[in-house]
Request: fold
Amino acid sequence: MSRIVISGASGDLGRRVTKLLLKNTAHKDLTLVTRTPGKLADRAAQGIRVLQGEYQDRESLDAAYLGAETLFLISGLNLGRRIAEHRNAIAAAQRAGIRHIVYTSVSGVQPNNPAMSAKDHYQTELDLRASGLNFTFLRNALYSEIVSSIQIAPAAASGQLEMATGLGSLAPAAKADVARAAAAVIQDPQKHEGAVYEITGPELLNYEDIARIGAEIYDTPIVYTPVTPEERQGFFDSIGMPRTYDPNMPLNPDGHLWASDELVTADMAVAQGYQAVLSQHVKQITGQEPETLRSVMERVKSTRYDLIEETV
Reply:
């Protein structure tokens, strides 16, 4: 087992992957890196190495990554600034002697994808290819928990689901499946060297399908109405959501930290077919069938997004 660093370890995905790795990895082989070490006090108390590291602070990354062989690079949240931050992490990995980076990208990465997030991930993928390091890309589909708690739960209350996604399709992935796939790759990076995995759920669905599933789960009518990007932006403006991401902005009432420019362009990517990706990669990597959106929706029904338990 190589020495592993999880960068961004105090977030939900980092916690889930840590839990899985500790079943097979000795504490001495794992380092958890986070902007806020206090959030991982429980792991430090178990004897796990927890270090402070920020993607904007090169020196902190140099110290945190030193001695590792495999880096699990969980993408940052600073939309528009992530490219520079990820470059800092890649450069620190090179200086630290890391051999392999497992990177959390996003489904549908293409140069013309309108989603602001996809543009950041596309450039980081290019930077990793040019870095000379071994890499594996985990292109994660939209989390099923986001669809359930942030999109469908409010629609169940109002009876209306209005999005700028047209009739485009996507294959939402359960967080537990994303974590299992990541843990499997991190534990055997040589097996997955150079791989680009599309981490998806088991079925392609459009938002008419999703609204129908939600209506059945909540036992209430939900009508999906496609709207224009301008109409979608107008809705977000009307509820006071910031247009531009700010790391210091308060949680949205639904329990997330996204700004409307990211959400509207993500809708556009679905409408234009960039998210219409379905793979068998979860099963190929983990040996398990991925969880359906319906199952996730039943499991997390009416639970606010940031309060969903770290089950794996």
